[in-house]
């Protein structure tokens, strides 16, 4: 299953997010940064890659770096047989497949529900978040795609 993401027509200051889940946590990726949603398969491991890099995969003829959001957030790796879904993101001309447990819906929370990143949010998450939305019964953590895709030795040296 693959699909191109189409942003709903814009109206007002509210932002649109593609929602993804990892465990019980709900995250939002700015829809302008999301290019595809697909089920990853046939991932080739990359020796000596950072731990969050699951490997490489072929997405419509392009080599894509598969990045595990669980590992990026410091959570336990998923069951080896449960690969979930992936969200296609681009950064500096390179394509990434962000592997998540599940992809939800496109959500446009009201602008007045947005808050700064809480100081009590796990430090590993705080550096990857750009804000949160308090929704009915849950918290939507908005991910900063640039920070999320800055990883490995080059990111640590910066």
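^ structure tokens above, recovered residues below v
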């Amino acid at each position: 299953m693959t699909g191109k993401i189409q942003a709903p027509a814009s109206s007002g200051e509210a932002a649109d997010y593609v929602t993804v889940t990892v465990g019980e946590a709900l995250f939002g990726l700015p829809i302008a940064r999301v290019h595809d949603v697909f089920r990853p398969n046939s991932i080739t491991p990359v020796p000596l890659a950072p731990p969050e890099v699951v490997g490489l995969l072929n997405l419509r003829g392009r080599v894509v770096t598969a990045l595990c959001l669980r590992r990026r957030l410091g959570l336990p790796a998923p069951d080896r047989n449960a690969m979930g879904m992936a969200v296609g993101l681009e950064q500096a001309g390179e394509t990434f497949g962000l592997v998540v447990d599940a992809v939800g819906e496109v959500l446009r929370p009201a602008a007045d529900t947005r808050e700064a990143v809480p100081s009590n949010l796990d430090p590993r998450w705080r550096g990857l978040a750009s804000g949160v939305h308090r929704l009915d019964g849950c918290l939507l953590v908005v991910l900063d795609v640039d920070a999320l895709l800055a990883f490995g030795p080059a990111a640590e040296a910066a």
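The longest strand covers residues 53-59.
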